[in-house]
Each structure stands twice: as structure tokens, then as C-alpha cells.
Amino acid sequence: MAAYSRLTPLFIVTGFLGSGKTTLLNRMLRHPSLRDAAVLVNEFGDVGLDHFLVEKMDENTVLLESGCLCCTIRDDLKDAIIELNGKRERGEVPRYKRMIIETTGLADPSPIIFTLNSDTVIKHHYRLGSIITTVDAVNGLKQLKRHAESVKQASVADRIVLTKTDIAKPADTARIRAKLERLNPSAELIEAVDGEVDVKRLLRADIYDPRTKGAEVRRWLAAEEKTAGDHRHSHDVNRHDEHIHSFTLTFDEALDWTAFGIWMTMLLHAHGEKVLRIKGILNVKGVAAPVVINGVQHVVHPPMHLKAWPDNDRRSRIVFIVDDIDRALIERSLAAFNAAADAA
Amino acid sequence: MCALCGVLMEGPHWTEAGTDAGRSDDAPGGRGRYLERDYRITIINRVLGHYGCSARDWAGNQYIVQNASGGASEVVINLPQLWQAMENITRKTADPLDAKLIGRLEARAHGSL
pTM (2 decimals)? Predict the structure, then answer.
């Protein structure tokens, strides 16, 4: 298998209905740096509106015909990727260097991410790149309150594109920004100005790009620090967006890598659906360089060494975004597993 | 697939793959592969002891999970499968947030178990 960083990155573009996902995709596809991209779009319902808008943009477009990209049609997504991969290998389509998958507005992105990681052929040729989520500055707050899918889409994102800021009231834009920063502090928040978005910024700083991975980790940590003190607000448990919360655990002592792996696989086995993201930098016992971890629900990227610490702080710092799991229990559990290794 | 025993092989799990799979064979903990495997099984058994079962290595690339009597066992290739096997064998739920499991690990670390 090729080194992980050399696999074709898969970018997922998601976002709630009417949040500007297709507009964003159209802008992206016009950008010269995406000429080497293959695109999978999804049709929802009888009228393929998305199809009309995107179909002519790229000859590599494949229309998935089974409706919503949820568990029931995972095979369509898998088959579409494998088919396109075969065409690329045989020279029947241009040698695309990245793939973009557009989900429906109602899709929970988790099964899609799971599908990408569960097929052996896909795993040998592709890796998950960034998850890009569009959020509408006018209606976004209402959607986050009412629709669990919307919260999940924002929670698993690496990049959040805030759309319709040109027609939203400045106060509404400020409120949705604050909400998103609290929900997913490590995601980069990018405003689409008059529908335009900096495409290079959307795709750059991939955590597996050796030129940018250090900067990306610094951004995660800085963003979390900025919002760290903002988690003691009151929670209304009847709202979808209040069930999901983020926090950072820090450990002064170096962590045992083996115990960490055992603990995390067990956590994801028991609570994977509720652990939306885990990102962090670990001070691993016996190793000078820090190790970066990055997981989306059940999918965990291979751990990665950085050449050097991004700042003077040598503590392990792990950002969690979870759905109704107690922070103190996670902290105590990880510490207990680490202590079990100490006693080994 | 292994030509001798017919076991389906998968790529290394992330806990065993080393950093940036394909670039380094050593786990981030810095041990060689086999030492790391022995060490992992030692810690796994501290956890599995809570559920009345244990794991051992098979052929350097699989685990055998079995109950205390040895009457029920499963062969698995990675940690996610190991937790499922433990549940199948013991009919208990593998949960690292279980306060009793945490208490047991803490007690052991403090020498009271």
C-alpha cells in the first residue's frame, strides 16, 4: 500500500438543505486547482436539481441514483468509487488526483465516512481528506436547533463554510459563528463572501500534507484554547445542538501509546456513534516527537509523528466532540488505562 | 489470505500500523513489532480480566480470545474485533466508561488489587 499521504484524498461536501452546498461545489469546480478532481454527486428525490447544476461541470461526474447517501445505499457509493478507480487505472478517464463527494442535505455523514473506510479496495487507493460543511448564516441556527443531521454535519467538519453572510443580519452571523466555534472549535470557519469562497484555503492545510501538517495542528490547538472557557453555559437537553459538546483533555504526564490504542478502540466500540471527533497531539512515553491522532466516529486515521512540537507546551492535548458523554468519565477512564500500563 | 490456514488478512490496524502506514513499521511507542504485541496483550488482559476472559497471541498476527474455562473462544485480527469477541463469549458489554472497570484498573495501579 502506498504511504498514507500519497493516497488520493476524498473530500466530502455536506451541509443542510438550502445551505449553499451545490453553489459551493459549482464554485469549487470552476477553480483551476480542481481540474484534476473527480466528483460524485447525489440525487435526492425525483427531480435531480443537484444533477442539473453539477452534471456539466466535469466529465468524471457520476450520478448516484438511489436517493439519500445513507447506510441503505452504501454499496452505490462504494461501487461508484471503485468503478471510477478502475476507469482511472485503465486510462478511460483523466488521472484525477482527488475526489469530491457531495452528500444530500439530509444525510448523516457518518455512514459515508464509514463506507469509505470499510472497503479494502477503497482503503488501498484513497484516504479521507477534509470534510467540508456548509452552514447558512440566515437559517443555520434554526436548523442546528431542530435537525440532528445538521448538528452532526457541523460537528464532524474540518472546514465550515458560512454561506449567505451577504444577506444575513450581522448579529445573526455573529451568533451562528459563536455557536459553530463552540460546537466544533477545531474546524476552520470560512465565510463565503457574496457566494465566493477561497477554494485554495478550503483544500489546503490537509493534515497529511507534510508541508502544512504542523500549521494545521497549531490551528486546532489555538482554536480550542480560544473557546476552552466557554463551555459552562446552560444546556437545554431537548435541543440537538446542546446534546453535542466539545472539550479538551490535557495530560501532564506522557501517555502510554499501547494503552491509549486499547482504550480508544474500546471507547469507539462502545460509544463510536457518540464520539463524533477526536483530534489531538500526544506526548508519547519514550518518544521525543509528538504523535497526532485524528478520528471521525469509528474511522481513525493512521497516527502521525510531527518532526517537532508546534509550541512550547509538551502536554498531551486531545479535543473531543461528543454526544451526551460525560467529560469527567472519559478523563478518568483514559487515566485509569494509562495507569494500568504503568503497572505492567 | 494465508495460503496455509485460509485466514483472511487485512492491512494493519491503526493501533499497530506505525506512523503514516507504509513509512514506518514501528508503533509510535517506539517498540519493535513483536515486543509491542506482547506488551499489548499484557495490558489487554488487565482489561479482559474484569470480564472473566483473556487473550493470547496466535501466529504473531491474530488473537485468541477465550473464557476462563477455555470452553468458548474466538480468533480475531485486531482490537475492534477483540472487543466484539469478548462480548460474544461473555455476554457482557465492553465499555471503558464502566465505573467498575475503571475502579478495578485504578485499584490495580495503586497496588490494592
Answer: 0.79
Grid cell of A1 as nine digits: 500500500
Beta pairing partners, A295 = A278, A300
Q: Where are the alpha helices (DSSP H) in chain A?
A: 21-30, 49-54, 74-89, 109-118, 120-125, 140-146, 148-155, 170-183, 199-203, 213-227, 240-243, 257-271, 327-342
For testing the chain B interface, which of A4, A265, A274 should be mutated: the one with the most B CBs within 10 Å? A265
* A333 interfacial to chain B (CB closer than 8 Å): yes
Cβ contact (<8 Å) for B83 and A265?
yes
pLDDT tens-digit readout, A252-309: 999 999 999 999 999 999 998 888 889 889 999 888 888 888 888 777 877 888 888 8
Three-class SS state of A270: helix
* DSSP 8-class letter at A188: E
- Contact state of B29 with A269 under an 8 Å Cβ cutoff: no
Q: What is the ipTM of this complex?
A: 0.89
CA–CA separation, A165 and A173 (whole Å): 6
The rounded distance, in Å, linking the Cα atoms of A91 and A94 is 7
Chain A: closest CA distance from residue B54 (Å): 14
List the single residue in B29, B95, B102 with the smallest CB-CB distance to A287: B29
Q: Are residues A318 and A217 in contact, defined by beta-carbon separation less than 8 angstroms?
A: no
A91-146 pLDDT per residue, tens = 888 888 888 888 776 677 777 777 777 788 888 899 888 899 999 999 999 888 88
**Spatial separation of the C-alpha atoms in residues B31 and A179, rounded to whole Å:** 43
Please name every residue paired with A12 in a beta bridge, in sequence order, or none if there are none: A101, A131
Torsion of Cα atoms, A344 then A320 then B95 then A127, to 10°: -90
Residues of chain A with CATH 3.40.50.300: 4-203
Name which CATH class applies to A4-203.
alpha beta
What is the spatial distance between Cα A147 and Cα B92, in angstroms, rounded to a whole number?
34
CATH code, A217-342: 3.30.1220.10
